[in-house]
Structures are given as structure tokens and as C-alpha cells.
User: Fold this.
Amino acid sequence: MSVLLFRRFKDQIVTMSLRGILVGVLILSAGLLGILLLKSAPMISDFPLSKLIFSAAWNPWKGQFGLSAFIVASLGVAIIALIFASPVSLLAALYLSECANRRLRNALRLPIDILAGVPSVVFGLVGVIVIIPSVSILSRLCGRDTTGYSILSGGILLAIMIMPYILSLSLEVLLSLPAEAREAAIALGATRWETVRHVVLKRSVVGLVAAVVLGFARAFGETIAVMMVVGNVAKIPHSAFDPAYPLPALIANNFGELMSIPRFDSALFLAALVLMIIVGIFSLAAQAVLHHIGRI
Amino acid sequence: MPHIAIRNLNVQCGDHQILKDVNCDIPDGCIVAIVGPSGCGKTTLLKSLNRLLDLNEDAKIQGQVLLDGSDIYGESSDVLSLRKKVGFMAQRPYPLPMSIQDNVSFGPKIHGLPDTSHGMVERYLRLAGLWEEVKDRLDSPAAKLSIGQQQRLALARTLAVEPEVILADEPTSALDPISVKIVEHQFRLLKSQYTIVLVTHILRQARRLADHVIFMYSGELVEQGPAESFFAAPKDERTRAYLSGEIS
Assistant:
């Protein structure tokens, strides 16, 4: 009887500990959101939210704190990065999971994981000496004469950064599919491509979308590397060759500086809140898409 | 119906020899049961007959599997048309991620068969004994079927590409007794039109269904023959031990 009691007690302890850890994580996240809300509250109470979000006028010393140029820049670099990185990463992952032999797959997994963990400042340095001059040449070929510091450079650099990340995640997703899934189609005489198209992709779509969304979140929040190549000009970019100023760069460049300007710190906290909300909206949108796909 | 002959077939995975010099002729137009204890090479032998072993990177195959006299492992062999001719049902059914109807028409579509109509879908669902249960929900996802229904859908899917041989790897092992009865009944109905090669570890099932039995033990083909004489008068000591339950 005492053994049974002890086992029940252990079971309760483990359950309570796990619940406690989960609650701790939730409290931390809620605390983070709470601090951002609290610190950006003065800004929200002094200015209409629509003006803060949709105005591009950023002149803190004149009391103008429009964030739209930064939001557009953040979305711009992240979307350019996804346009370049997603197809390449997903196709490479498909090649590794469906066509490559195990030896090649195993040989490449470690370097891909190492690349996914390279500090972003290293990518930033390479971006400055390789991407900036290349984009400058490209702009001249397109009839513009720019320095190369642009939203396009930021997008390309981020694409290179998140490629191994999306590739690594999607490869895990594809490899987790049971062998029976492929066997079911191949046994009917399907080719490798027919199997990929009708079975592998349909079965893995949830995980692959999650990999891309995580890649987007990483690109959207990336700071240092983007800051080094994007030009940091607080204006809405009108072309991919224009410089821009993403939200994370705004916060990193300015926090601790110019703090004598009234409401400036509150504006930076609001920028952080907007950053967090946009990533949240993308995650929710991805979940809605997946829910819809699941229903079909 | 094609004639299948296996000649000096050896299959190795890494250091492990799974099939050792297997030789046999599969009789046409009947149910052939491959029996033997777990890990004796039954499934490997079955999968070697439509080159599903190709999916295993470690498998090294030597010897010949002759389908109407030509080696399916030969250089001129076309694996896609081989798999159309020699269908395969897995131990656990895996519905393709699409509707019930599309599961049946998938094979005919990829092979460019002329008939991919609703009528064709109905014909093969009836042949697999599933039509009455699904006729009102052909567009719903196949994954929503019970596992017994999924296995019959797998049978309909296999039949729809018009094979001449059906390979079935313990097709009833994951099913409830009623589903087992239905699948076995369908196999009995189908054997006049197809050669059915069935792997089973259930001796009672082999007794109920098989016209011809192959007994495998440790990768060797120990004994084979018509079901009646195989069960009544086994020749090899190991077969006798297996049938009496001394080895399992």
C-alpha cells in the first residue's frame, strides 16, 4: 500500500512540476508583453494609434513618431528574404529527403546545422563586402545608381541567413514522415515526383508551413546583420534599391541615445510591441491557413 | 496471368543475410501463402517480387526474379510497369492523403488508364467489398475510415491499376475479426482472376486460404507445396516443428 501511495505521490509531483514550468513560461511571456504595453502606454495615450502606425513622419525632436516607414521596411526585408529563401530551402530539403542517399544526407546535415547557428554579425560582415557591391552593380544595370545599402541587400542577406534554418527544419519534417507513406504510392507504380507531389507534400504541409513561418519570424526580428546593410534611412522605400530602416534596427540603434527627447523611449517600446504583434499575427494567420487545409 | 519464378535469390542488409539462395516457382491463379516465424524473411521475399526492396538503401540483391521469363532486376526491366502488374498491400493500410474516390482513381490516373470514371471507382470498391459502406461519402478523406475499411480501400486501390499479381503482407494483422473475415472472403473471390501471394504468420489463416504454401526459416526456403500435402504431411523436420508450435 505504501508503495502505491509513494508512486501516486511521485506522479503528482511530476505533474505539478511540469504544470509549474508551463505557468512560469506563460508568466514570462505575459510579463514581457505587459512591460511593452506599460512602457508604450504614454505614447499611445498622447497620440492616436492610427497616426503612430500609419504615419511615416519620424521626427522625434518635433514630436512626430510615425512608425510606418519602419514597419514597411521590416515587412519588406522579411518578405524579400522569404521569396528568395523559401523555394530554395524547401527544394533542397526535398532533394535531400527524397533523392539523396543517406550518406550524402548525413554528411550535409551537420554543416547545415552549423550554418543555421552562425552569429548574424558574421553574415553582416560578409554582406557588407559581397552583397552591397553586388547590389550596387545590379542597380546600375537597372538604370539606378545606388550605394547598394538597400532593402534588397537586407532581404538577400536575411535570405542567406534563414536558408539553412528553414532547410534544417523542413528536412526534419520530411524525414519524420513514415516510410509507409511513400511506399503506398510507389507500390502503385508512382514515380518519385508523383509520390512527392501527391503524398509527401500533402502529408508534410503543416510542418513545412511552420518551418517557413519560423523562418519569417527569425528574419523579421533579425537586427545586427540587417542593420549593417540596409542603410538605416527612416523613409518608406519605393523600390528594392532604396535604403530603409527596419524596426529592430531602429530600436538597437537608438535605445540609450537621444533619451532626453520626450516620449522617445516610449516610442521605441511601442516599436518593440508592434514587432511582437506582427510576428504574432503571422503565426495566427499561418495557423488559420493550416486549419483550413486540414479541413479540406 | 504471369508466371513468377525465383532463382538463387540472395538479399543482404549490411552484414545480415536476410534471404539465402531462395528458389521457387509461384503457381498461377491461386493463393500462395508464405509462412514462417518472425524475422525469417517472409516480407523481404514478398517485397523482392515487385522491387519494393529498392527503397531500402542497404539492401543488396543477387539472383533473379523472373516474370514471364524476364528478370525484373535486369537492366531492361521497367520498374513502374512492373509495379502496375504486381500490386502490393502493406501490413498497415496507409490511405493516400486524399478522398476515398481519389484513392481508387489515383493509380489509374498516373498510369494513364482510359477509365478513371465514377463507375470504375464503384467497380473496384465493390470488388474490395467496401462499396456499400462508403457509397454516400466518396468525397470524404480516406483517413476517416476505420482501419478495416482502410485495408479494403488499399485492396481497391491495388486492384484499380489492373494488376495480375497481388502481394499482400500480413494484410489482416492489424484488423478486427469481422474485417479479417471480409478481407479473406474477398481474397477467395479474387483468386480466380489474380495470383495472390500472401505473407501470414497466422497458420490458421494459411490453412483457411492457401492453395499453395511456402515455408521460410532463417532466410531459407525450407519447404513448399500444395496446401493439403504441406499441412498433412510435411517433409522437413523444421516444418513439422513449426506446424506443431515448437518453433514460432
The longest strand of chain B covers residues 16-26.
